[in-house]
Each structure stands twice: as structure tokens, then as C-alpha cells.
Amino acid sequence: MRATAVVVGSGPNGLGAAVELARAGLDVTVHEAAAVPGGAARSTDLFGPGTVVDLGSAVHPFGVASPLFRRLGLERHGLEWLHPPVVAAHPLDDGPAGLLHRSLERTAAELGPDGRAWSLLHGGVVRRWEETVPAVLGPLVRRPEHPAALAAFGLRAPWPAAATARALFRTEQARGLFVGSAAHAVLPPSHPLTSAFGTLFGAAAHATGWPVARGGTQAIADALVAELEEHGGRVVVDSPVTDLARVRPADVVLLDLTPRQVLALRGLDLPGRYRRALARWRYGTASYKVDLLLDGPVPWRDPRVGRAGTVHVGGTPAEIGAAESQARAGRLPERPFVLVAQQGAADPSRAPAGREVLWAYAHVPHGCDDPRAGDRVLAQLERFAPGVRDRVLERVDTPPAGLEAWNPNLVGGDIGGGALDGLQQVFRPAVQADPYATGVPGVYLCSSSTPPGGGVHGMAGYHAARSALAGLRRTPG
Predict the structure, then answer these.
(1) I need a surface site. Which of 40, 144, 235, 363 has the fewest CB within 10 A?
(2) Distance of CA 78 to CAs 213, 220, 419, Å?
(3) Which of 3, 457, 17 is nearest to 227 (CA)?
(4) Same domain for 260 and 230
(5) Kind and range of the H or E element at 98?
(6) Residue 66: inside a domain
(7) What is the pLDDT of residues 5-43, one digit of tens each?
(8) Position 476 pLDDT exceeds 60
(9) CB 313, CB 337: distance < 8 Å
């Protein structure tokens, strides 16, 4: 008789876990509370027919690089990665923007006096990319498969991004590109280990790019569902699970939930030590999302920025640092760091001819639903793209409470499943040998609150599934 598995939640991690279990021969059912699978990897026609808006994640450096997604060959199920002409841009008030290209050599050449330092910082990681990615997209406390690659990356990782930028680079373009990439950690660049994010995102740009999924991020979730169904699994939508008694008996249960939702589950008698660890879990800085329908391209002061799939809008590294520190301290920044996605630069199908969908979010204090945040996003865009306000046909703001309403894992607007500082950067969600085990036999955690954290790559689900299979004394298929 086949062993059975239940997965609660159909984000990329939940679906990644489900696929790994189904490929190992288990009978897998995924329960999703929403009407559509995907978690934060969903898309909709928010601005009417012919438009595609990514409700959550939009650009996917670690989706295309994910060892799990690559092994599954999701392209067989219609997933297509599209790359913009420029990976990312960092506009400045004075002087040209910094541009991050797929080519390490071109990026270095355009950075002039900082080109050699840029190449030295990123080149070794790019050359060892195939070994580095599995090492960083998993538990940090384990014996690495490729210690040389991890050591080469680790030498660059411990330092604050702001300090690395000041020490290595002379131009605001290079400093901005590096600190802007580090800001994906949703931490002030003065924090230790933020250089790890700056280096990793920069190396990803040169090694595999930061693409979008043709037709919207939903295509990633749809491909994972198709792979699951190919192996006999199923997804049940409109099926919230608040009591594990409802899904038992099952040989294994995997939870694509963050600590707050896990603690709220009935029928789960967690060990006291683990329960206390979950109760201490800290959620981090929030995102305030603004989606725009424009009557044409963004009028960036530096027209080259319009060719970038991702734009880091925040000004100088000092301004980014101040904004991130204010948001972390509970104050709404006057000039927040804004992450912009121009998916249309790679995928023209996102909007009808003559229109453009612009996706943006600002880092704001946890749970901050202050409507001034949306206006400040527009002000930051106007700062580097004068006249963009006049091109807005429709605008939809989604504050932290709105993000949590459509995806309860985004607690208080935290899109990463929990702050990535202190012990939580290394031990997620508790200090223990197996980060996916809950202490309840057969029950595992597989969300972004486990290693490697947030992102659309499915690797937390993959590792949790491997842990569950080991518990069943099975060998994955």
C-alpha cells in the first residue's frame, strides 16, 4: 500500500515538497485555502482583460537557478523564462544609472574604475555557480557538498554591504548596484551578512539572469501543479486546514505555513521547546505594494533604465541605508527604498499595446498600512522619471494588511517568512539539527520560515520533503 502525504499550502515550497514526495511514490494531496494554487506566486488581470499583474513575486533570480526546478524540467509544462535586455538598473539623481547586465564583462566595462573590483567580487562565485547555488539554497548548518565553492562565497558574505561598497568601489553606480541588490535581504545595509545578498544577487545576474515567467508568475505554480498531477498527486483548492485531524491519517504532513499559522493549528501537539521557539519568531520589515497601469513607458531620466527588468529606486547607498533603518525602527521613510519590476521589458504580453503594467513595492515598518506610503512610492518614481504621475491610468495600493489578507503567510506584510537577521538568518525556525522537523512524528515545516528563506525556488519544500522521506526510510525517486 502506498504511503500517503498531505501538504498544507500550495506556494512554491508546498508544491515543491508535494512534487518531490509524489516522485518518490507517495500518494500526495495538497490543500490550498485560496481558490487558486500558488500562494504568493499568483497573477491576475487586475487592470482588466489583456493585463497581467503579479500579485506577489515578480522577478525570479532563484527560480531559473533553482536546482529543483531545473531537475524537474518545468518547461515541459509550459513554463518559459524571459530575460529583459538589462537585468537591473539603479538610477541616480546626478549622472547615469548603474546597469547590471547578464555579461559580467560588460557590466565591469561600464563601471569604469570599479570594473576590476566588480569582477573580482563576483567572478569567483559566477565561475562556481553550479556548486554555489545548492550550497546557499539550503540549511547553512550542514556538511556542504562543495566546500570550496561555499568557502569562496563565504569569504565575501560576513560583511555589511555598506562597508563592502565603500571599501571596494569609488563610483555611485557600482555602490548603488551592490547595495540595491543587498537590499533584497530587507535589512539595512549596515547589518552583518548583507554582503552575502549583494554578492549572490549580482552573481545570479551574470550566471543565470533575473528573468520573469512568460504570462505571469502564475505560470510557475501551474507548471508545478502539472508536474504533481503527472505523478498522481492532486491540489484541492478552497480547502483551508485549521485542524490536522481533518487530514489524518496520513503518513507525513508538510506545512507550508509560517510559525504564527502553525501555532494556530488545532490537532498539533508540539513539543514545548519547539512551541516556545515558534512563539519567539520575529517577523520583519513589511512591503507596501503599488501596481500601476500606465498609458506608455516610464519616462526615466536615463532612458536605458526602461530596458531593465528590475529597478532599484532609492538613490545613494546612504539614502537606502537610512530608509531601511527607519522602516526597521518602525518609522515610515520619507524616501523609502522601492523595488520596481518592469516585466514588460521582457514579456510584452503583460499589457495591451500602448499600455504598461508597473509593479512596485516599498519597504515600510511591519504592519504599516499608512496610505502615505503609496504616495511616497509615486514620489520616488517621479524623482527619477519626471512625468510618470501623468501617465498613470489606474493605481492599486496593497498595504501590508492587504498582502496578509490574500496570503496569510505574509504576516504584517513580511514577504520573507520572518526577519533574516540574528540567529534567524542561520537557524530557521529553531536551533536544531533538522530545521524542517517539528518534533511531532511525521509532521514537517516547509515554508519560507525554514532554510533557505524567502523566494520562488521551491528549495525549502524540497529539503523538507527529503527530511520526511528519510523519516519514512525511503529513497527519493
Answers:
(1) 144
(2) 10, 9, 34
(3) 17
(4) yes
(5) strand 98-100
(6) no
(7) 999 999 999 999 999 999 999 999 999 999 999 999 999
(8) no
(9) yes
